[in-house]
Amino acid sequence: MHILQSIEEFEQIKSSSAVVFEFTADWCGDCRFIDPFMPEVVEKFSNYKFVKVDRDKFLDLCIDLGIIGIPSFLAYENGIELGRFVSKDRKTQEEIENFISNLK
Fold it and tell me: Of 20, 25, 31, 51, which is the active-site residue?
């Protein structure tokens, strides 16, 4: 999974391909919970690029996007938001896969 390096990179990636951004933080227990199965999710949905966004490094971006809890997911294709799975709740592999499956 790619790790976001800059706001400029965020804008470039969201505008150029089908992408799922995963908003996370090192200290977040619920984020660590999903780490073991995320490679399987990434492999299953290979038509999307997956990008990890560290909430602490990109706090202003999270505020602008309304990311109020982590882990959260935001999907774009060609600059258009396809969907968001944003909450402070722990997420299961099934919930994440259902979210991605239902993106249009």
Answer: 31
